[in-house]
Amino acid sequence: xxxxxxxxxxxxxxxxxxxxxxxxxxxxxxxxxxxxxxxxxxxxxxxxxxxxxxxxxxxxxxxxxxxxxxxxxxxxxxxxxxxxxxxxxxxxxxxxxxxxxxxxxxxxxxxxxxxxxxxxxxxxxxxxxxxxxxxxxxxxxxxxxxxxxxxxxxxxxxxxxxxxxxxxxxxxxxxxxxxxxxxxxxxxxxxxxxxxxxxxxxxx
Length: 204
Fold this sequence. Notes:
- By secondary structure, the protein is an alpha/beta fold.
- The chain is built from 7 helices and 7 strands, in the order βββααααβαβαββα.
- β4, α5 and β5 (134-138) form a beta-alpha-beta unit.
- α6 (142-148) packs across α7 (187-199).
- It is globular.
């Protein structure tokens, strides 16, 4: 995301060197980090304001997207007045307004209850498909990885002290995004989860 410099190497995105260049990748943290003293509209419009867009135009551009993110009517509320799911939708809209086509998502649904999490996962898949974003999702939840990913990359820490994690295997989720709604209740999902767990060293 360009927030810190790598120890070594370069970061290429579609062949472009984006090493240390903020703005190339949208970044959504585990916590929504909405500013409590600002209304939802101003929270969401923040990336536009940071990019130099005048306040009135930034608000207008942000408000145009509220309905498609299921947030219509919340513009003048404060973050404390939203449910956990609504706050995460607002955080994702804010990330989307950064203008980046590639989104880095750090366990964005882990703080939500199980029902809200399941609902938001399905909604998120539809948004990614509709907007044409590429999402790189970091998660410890095998169910979440199988439910959301086109491909699951399993990481393991290096045995060397301070070594970086390495990819120990990949599992393709060969189920169209449009057919994912009931995936986790199928035998297919069990096979996919078992493949991931085996790579993690679990006895499946």
